[in-house]
Design brief:
Blueprint (H helix, E strand, L loop, with lengths): L1 H5 L1 E3 L5 E3 L4 H19 L3 H21 L9 H4 L7 H8 L2 H34 L2 H16 L2 H12 L4 H8 L7 H4 L1 H26 L3 H9 L4 H12 L1 H16 L3 H6 L11 H11 L3 H30 L1
Antiparallel strand pairs: 1-2
Helix pairs in contact: 5-17, 6-7, 6-11, 6-14, 7-11, 8-11, 11-14, 12-13, 14-17, 16-17
Amino acid sequence: MTSTLDAVGSDARGRTTPVRPPRGRQKARSRAHTRRSLARAVPLVPAIGLLVVFLVGPILSSFYGSFTNMSLTGSSAASAQWVGLQNYIDLFKSPDFPVSVWLTLVFLIGSAVIGQNVVGMVLALLMRNGSRWVGALVSTFVVGAWVLPEIVAAFASYAFFSQHGTLNAILAGFGVTGPSWLFAFPMLSIILANTWRGAAFSMLVYSAALQEVPPEITEAAEVDGANGVKRFFLVTLPMIRRSISTNLMLITLQTLSVFTLIYVMTGGGPGNKSMTLPVLAYQEAFKFSELGYGTAIATILLLVGAVFAIVYVRALKTEVD
């Protein structure tokens, strides 16, 4: 009772009000809270150090290099000089840059936002509602593509879409002469290849999300007369929207950095018809030896990924709130 009375007081009208503890006690509590926070942060120090060394350090080094004339050969290779914004000015004046930005967006929307997202959802529904042999077939062709090393998947895709490859052999069996896909339709080829390789991740995310949908809710919608399509769009999708946003964020950031698949299949060609930003950065930095200029392209790509990440994180935060 005494401690309770010490913690309250009364104002001029006789109302009970809390009494603040003495300043010395407040400072002691603040110091104790600081010590506990530091003690909890100690186990995180090695992880933070690794992030600084292997993530923050290379990003800062790359950002600095984009303002220099670093190169693989010549005097700039030994002692790079500060050139300020010149690399970015040359980049925005280059006719290849807007083409690469456009192709990167086409590749991103086609193979990630539409391709992997939609195909992953369809496969998750097939895995949930299909028979056992459907699940075995999906696991073999889709999950198998996902676990393959990227270089192996790239060569498999090249063999499938090449002029004398598997796709044209299948078409020839039906009496159809297929085109040279990698030259006639390079972007379509790499979009389909990346969709094939990455759809398994979306399928696994959506399979887990669909398991969390309460069956009684869909049953209630069925009793109310909603058919399968209406139940999917009006009940299932709204309930897994957070999983959709998370999946979109992950596959978007992953697709922005795809390089090996494109380089093996088309090399950015023919011409610049499949020259996405990662391929352009590689070409400028290592083929033409302009490291500073190539690093400026990589920095732009990093900023584009950061913009997408911020948009998705804000969307997820709004849904949580």
